[in-house]
Amino acid sequence: MLLETPSQADKRPDGLARVEDRRLLTGRGLYVHDVRLPGMLHAVFVRSTYARARLIALDLQAARSCAGVLAVLDFAQLGGLTMPPINPLLPLRELPDFPLLAAGRVDSVGQPIAVVVASSLAAAQRAAEQVQVDYDAEPAQADGAAGARVVASVRHQAGDAAAVKALHPLHKVRVVHQQARVISMPLEPRAAVAQWDASGGMLTAWLATQTPSRARADIARALDLPLDKVRVIAPDVGGAFGAKASVSPEDLVIAFVARHLQASVKWTSSRSEEFTSAPHGRGARLEGELWLDAQGRFVHLQAQMNFPTGAWLPYSAVVPARNAARILPGPYHVSSIDLASEAAMSNAAAVNIYRGAGRPEAALLMERLVEMAARQSGMDPVELRLRNLVSLMPHATPTGESLDAGNYRAALERACARFDYAGERREQARRRAQGELLGIGLALYVEPCGQGWESARVSLQADGRVQVASGSASQGQGHQTSYALIAAEALACEPALVTVIEGDTASCPPGIGALASRSMAIGGSAVWQAATQAARRRDAGEPLPIVVEAVYTAPAEAWSYGCVIVRLAIDRDTGQPQIERLVWVDDAGRIISPQLAEGQLLGGLAQGLGQALLERIVYDDEGQLLTGSLMDYALPRADQMPLVELESLAESTPANLLGAKGVGEAGCIGVPAALLNAAADALSPLGEKTLDFPLTAERLWQAMQQPSGDPTP
Fold it and tell me: Phi and psi of 191, rounded to 5°?
């Protein structure tokens, strides 16, 4: 259904049809996989088959002798190149260097050991099979294992916890939840093409990346090149979801090989390679306790959250651990807190930011505690939330954050009204009396939407046309439409006159990139700032062309929020869950394009649904991946998407020029928590159950057979 906003409930004011659609839907998109260059060589990586082992011997000679092979390189030939430093958003412990190709040992299945470069892909694949590797296997360390190397940690304490606990609150509830790892599933797997121009000493790289400017800097560092001798082009990127926010070892190896051979080199990942070596998401272990007084007020929140990082660290590796800790206690007042979060390594694929990056974990832990507290204290879960919601804005949280603007009570009340909460509870009681397992689950959430700066350049041309160049490249969000709408409004011109370019460091200003729900709030504000400055110069009589470049820094972080309510039925005989109804009220601030905002919300919902009900990466005790293909890893299909009643409050924020908040991650934050609460509510007549994702029919059926409180396998 169409996203409804208070002023847009009866019409569809798209303003401008998505200009990207026709080109992409008619097969005229250009992805990295589509790049073809004269004389282009092809690369294939030889990867570890062990999760943890010493490399005893590596024989490359047979591969080098194969027809069509130009080079077979290992760590020694790369000159000891390592991955760039990670983002120190938390204080970092002493960390090892992470070589681009394995150096003396391997630490995960799929880690690249060598690269074969040949005149054709088939020749490279044949030669790669001839590489001989001898391993001395060692015991693999799983996620969360005792003694794992801790990368970073953070702790937030506020209030007088001892005094709170001395009150002997009426209720204390505890939750333990183990999340499964998941993997982003973009239409386009990772890919890289690098071209070396010896005459100018210039490296051009086509990458499927969310952060072209950062990728450019990483390549320049790795190859010891001046920044102006590296160009990164991110053409159409078929989805990213955080997994393409950081360069991978393969990206940098391909750049090195192109210069080494003074050639053009291409690598495209297979779907199998993505499962073993692309960054995963989630995987955290969440533990929390919530204390309530006799009036149902939240008086103390305690949490311990452990996040896996895998065998090497992408740039944003500590972001999930940081976000989860700083976001709690979400939209609620709590008198005191003690929140600890840490990130630790393991012998598995790296874990990077994945749509939400710590936000879903915080929401799930908090909302699960609230729902359990309501059930055990005999209070209605809506009433309990209303008693504890933050009401006055801006609000300083106990972790040092500032909630900028919004009406959390309105979101909850509006969702309940649309859901007909009282009527649904009566219907639930009627159906339960007939033996059905029927649950109603709620979740409130907050969504911080990025900090820092972004850039834009607006050019008013002599023929009346406008060009917008953004440092925030798109991976499907529709920037060519939304940024055109912003510029057109500022310039008082038709949107059709505006062309948006992005994703090319040679023609666009440097920027942070599109991640963390920041594209509209910060990237869009940069476009507005540049366009309004250009309009003032034009209206003051300055002759065309006029070019304005702006760097916009947000004075504060915008926080989206919302409420999801789900009705879920569970079949008594099979455990099969069925979402019967889903109502969702979201506040993403000022909405530029309802059509694009709706798409972002529903896309996030689909991924949240997948995490909650279907998706699960599984390793065995030896670190071997058991879910390495789409035969073993389940994704949601179109026929599994529920009907969604979706509404926006669209209240503006002072945190940026547009009054916009993030929208891209909300579905991954609120929907899983609501589904978990609905499943627990459905099974509550059988006792309080411990439920972990994914909520498959098998897991729910097993939970139905077990005594209350026992964890499911």
Answer: -160, 155
Classify residue 10: in a domain, yes or no: no
Q: Residue-wise over 577-608: b if at least 16 C-beta within 10 A, else e?
A: bebebbbbbbbbbbbbbbbbbbbbbbbbbbbb
For residue 405, give its domain range.
Answer: 280-450+557-705
Residues 675 and 581 in one domain: yes
Tell how far CA 631 is from the center of its chain. 24
Looking at residue 399, what DSSP letter applies?
T
C-beta of residue 446 within 8 angstroms of C-beta of residue 475: no
410 membership: H or E segment, kind and range: helix 408-419
| Euclidean distance between CA atoms 685 and 572, whole angstroms | 12
What are 150's strand-pairing partners? 344
CATH of the domain at 322: 3.30.365.10
Task: Give me the pLDDT at residue 161, please.
Answer: 82
Q: Are residues 293 and 257 in the same domain?
A: no
Closest CA to 31 of 208, 274, 286, 252: 208
* 371-407 tens-digit pLDDT: 999 999 999 999 999 999 999 999 999 999 999 999 9
Tally Cβ neighbours within 10 Å of residue 386.
16
- Smallest CA-to-CA distance from 21 within 478, 357, 585, 595 is with 478
Give the pLDDT confidence score for residue 16 in this predicted structure.
Answer: 54
This prediction has a pTM of 0.93
Q: What does the pLDDT look like over 593-641, one tens digit per residue?
A: 898 899 999 999 999 999 999 999 999 999 999 999 999 999 999 988 9
Q: What is the pLDDT of residues 530-571, one digit of tens each?
A: 999 999 999 999 999 999 999 999 999 999 999 999 999 999
Residue 453: burial class (beta carbons within 10 Å; 0-12, 13-18, 19+): middle
User: What is d(CA 417, CA 563) in angstroms, rounded to the nearest whole number?
Assistant: 12
Same domain, 318 and 410: yes
Q: What is the pLDDT of residues 261-314, one digit of tens each?
A: 999 999 999 999 999 999 999 999 999 999 999 899 999 999 999 999 999 999
What residues have CB less than 8 Å from 422, skipping those under 6 apart?
Answer: none
What is the C-alpha separation between 683 and 673, in angstroms, rounded?
Answer: 16
Six token digits for residue 347: 């012998």
How is the chain split among helix, strand and coil, in percent rounded to 5? Answer: 30, 25, 45
- CB under 8 Å to 529, separation ≥6 — which residues? 456, 550, 552, 657
Q: How far apart are CA 254 and CA 122, in angstroms?
A: 18
Contact of 364 with 177, CB cutoff 8 Å = yes
